[in-house]
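If your schedule permits, I should be very grateful for your opinion on a structural question. Kindly check, if you would, that the fold set down in the tokens agrees with what the sequence suggests. Thank you for your consideration; the sequence and its tokens are set out here:
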Amino acid sequence: MNLDTQETEVSTSRNQQFCTFFLGEFFFGVNVTQVQEVLRWQPMTGVPLSGSSIQGLINLRGQLVTAVDLRQRLEMPPFEDGHQPMNVVIQRDDGMVSLLVDEICDVVEVHQDSFERVPETVRGVARELVLGAYKLESSLLLILDVERILAFEAA
């Protein structure tokens, strides 16, 4: 195998996997390497004086995990009354955080070369929190920047 062939093999195997979910009608994804696990709705304990994006704390096998209302963070309409959001638990260096979503979907694998910049139609804070998009057969997969989504904690 020569160097040219080796480079081609490396570049053609650059697929990315994303854990996907819905928020309303929008199809989002986060890099699967950031996801610890996905869970059904969990009871939450409110956190006094926390930011509006903090929905509460969930008890995950004895560990407290902050639950972030992703709809609030993206300035989307709130969850409907009685709706029990699902949890995408993200592993960070400083612990775990749960992103509250409407519906968890599959792990989707896409080729890195098909990644596109944030569409011009994405406005507001969502524009800052979306890394880009992948065109799929029947939808547009918006990739979220988890670090930016959770950066409000430091503010």
